[in-house]
Design goal:
The chain contains five helices and 14 strands. The protein is an alpha+beta fold and 239 residues long. This is Putative amidohydrolase.
């Protein structure tokens, strides 16, 4: 499978506010985005970020999976957006191409354990991560090591390949994170772009059929399960 991952909000750029998001938002069937990818080889699967205006009238940071000029499955919507213009999504679609299953984890969602883990438990062996770390310079640099370490963590803890595409460069007091890279399930960085300039990274990867991902057998230690359930219950009650 040939897989190309593009950054979050690849189409239209990251909108700074709701009016800007509305100005670039695409609605189903996302003809403008699919047309922009028309020159991609028909054998290539593309994960492209864009601002979506859903049928329900909400704005989302979404990613479409496109192959041979057609949308593959449902779009993935960012679950935990930090941008005030965006509403959270509610699903984690699993995509299958040529015998491989993969999922999409959009930017801030990769900072959390649960979205990637749910995809891995559903059978994903590849996590495509469209990122858009276009932030004030001091914030970008403060997060630089953490961002890269987080991507490695998602790969190792889920026994998945991680393919991340980020923005780079500096303009107007803001700096892109430049965390574009391909990470093996054991945490090895197979390929990485220069942090301060645009780049495309490529690698041939082998995706084993079996995963080493450990399932949590609660019967082995019921006390831990009780602590987890108590914690979730406390969160729901606000204590």
């Amino acid at each position: 499978m040939e897989l190309l991952v593009l950054p979050e909000c690849y189409s239209g750029g990251m909108p700074p506010d709701k009016p800007a998001a509305e100005a670039v938002a695409l609605s189903p069937p996302y003809a403008h985005l699919i047309s922009a990818l028309r020159d991609c080889p028909p054998t290539m699967t593309v994960v492209a970020g864009f601002t979506e205006l859903s049928a329900g009238g909400r704005l989302h940071s979404s990613a479409a999976v496109v192959r041979a000029g057609r949308l593959v499955g449902e779009v993935t919507r960012k679950l935990f957006p930090r941008e005030p213009a965006f509403s959270p999504g509610a699903d984690l679609p699993l995509y299958r191409q040529e015998g491989h299953a993969f999922g999409v984890v959009i930017c801030n969602d990769a900072n959390l354990v649960e979205p990637a883990r749910l995809l891995a438990l559903a059978g994903a062996r590849i996590l495509a991560c469209p990122l858009n770390n276009d932030l004030p310079v001091e914030v970008t640099r403060g997060w630089a090591v953490r961002t890269r370490s987080t991507l490695i963590a998602r790969a190792v803890e889920n026994d998945c390949w991680v393919i991340a595409a980020d923005v780079s460069g500096t303009a107007g007091g803001r700096e892109g994170g430049g965390a574009t890279r391909i990470i093996a399930p054991d945490g090895r960085i197979v390929a990485a772009a220069q942090a301060d300039e645009p780049g495309l990274v490529m690698a041939d990867i082998e995706v084993p059929d079996r995963s080493f991902l450990q399932r949590w057998n609660v019967a082995q230690n019921p006390a831990v399960l009780k602590q987890w359930l108590d914690h979730v219950s406390g969160q729901r009650s606000g204590t």
